[in-house]
Amino acid sequence: MESTAKKMDYEPKSDIQQVQTKTQLNIFNTPVLWFVIFGVITIVSMYTGNLPGGMIGSLLVMIVLGEAFGWLGDRTPIVKTFFGGGAIVAIFGSAYMVYSGVLPESITTSVTDFMTTGGFLDFYIAALITGSILGMNAKILVKVGLRYFIPIFGAVIGAIIIAAIFGSLVGFSLQDAILVITMPIMGGGMGAGAVPMSQIYSEMLGNEPSYYISMLVPALALGNVFAIVLASVLNMVGNKFPSLTGNGQLIKGFKYEKSEQKYDIGKMGVGLLAALTFFTIGHLLGDFLPLHPYAIMIIIVAVAKIASIIPQVVLDGASQWYQFVASNWTFALLFGIGVAYTDLNTVLQALSFQYILTVFGVVLGAIIGAGLLGKLVGFYPIEAAITAGLCMANMGGTGDVAVLSASKRMELMPFAQISSRLGGALILLLSGLIIPLLV
Fold this sequence. Notes:
With 439 residues, this protein is mainly α. It folds into 2 domains: 2-118, no CATH class; 121-330 and 340-438, no CATH class. It is built from 21 helices and 2 strands. A two-stranded antiparallel ribbon has the order 1-2. α4 (54-73) packs across α7, α7 packs antiparallel against α16 (312-341) and α19 crosses α21. The longest helix has 32 residues, at 209-240. The radius of gyration is 21 Å and the shape is globular. The N and C termini lie far apart (64 Å). Mean pLDDT is 85; it is low at 1-23.
């Protein structure tokens, strides 16, 4: 059991997959020959219409194809260095399978249902939020406090300024550069950003919400691509300039040392229960509070951790369950994100030079603003740029997973979720204030 525990000690997904013995190559910690056998069985079942329905068939396809794409992406030159490696290949590989019709429609429907109505994305994020916060040093949570909103504010200001500059250079009006491109990118994804933003635009500018959705989605999708790519670039910058990064720690002055744990299956069950319960609390209070359930969940878990009211067995269990989920299901989830949330046709339609340059300006500005103001308040610039910058500029919860995976800093998920949820709410408020100034 102890040897198994050491293998499960959390490292970024791509590192885990590169573990090799002297005699054999592994994919998903499985000898490559056996992984191929599993893959052949899966593919034959897919294309003969014999794949089990529901969770079993969907998760099997997501694990096998997600791990295969991730393995290839983490070993492909240029892609692994500049384009997010396995994370971006898993997302866009699956998105291309849907776009080209290679993935059977029944599988697309099944995976989409599993990710959305089946709640797999929520299940994954619940584990990461609960385990990563409960496994954190409580002093770090206290010290970060409200200061975290300073780099978020910096990201928004930086995105608006750079987008306005780039947009004006290529012929976009200030209104288009800010309202149509910057706001949706920084707005917390589809459900928490673009959809309610289209309602605000409709009420204040006229036209149907669907009209604005068609304008906002391309910016959101393309911004998510740049966020993933630049997350990988920031990881490279951190490797080259170690003084700029905490290697997964957001704040200076605290050296987080992992406690040696003997991994326990029973404790993992407790961790699973804790993750599900805290997620449910978020939804329960969401009926009464004007906040996203994820945001409420983060606050409740953080308060419980700081107050030291949770037994050690729950803390250990939540941490271990989070490590199990992140180590084994990340590429599966990224494959599902590509199928259920990434419309490749929408991305391709937006690919004009002017549009691409302005979207790039938004994401670059978010990085610069978050990194600079983060450094001013004592955060590591790389981690501040990733969490308060890129996780504001991606597609919400799905983008957070992809960005943190590409940057190899999955332990930053609690801060990423603060950016996506609370930061997204800030953008909705800001949109309502900016519109009268630009029309």
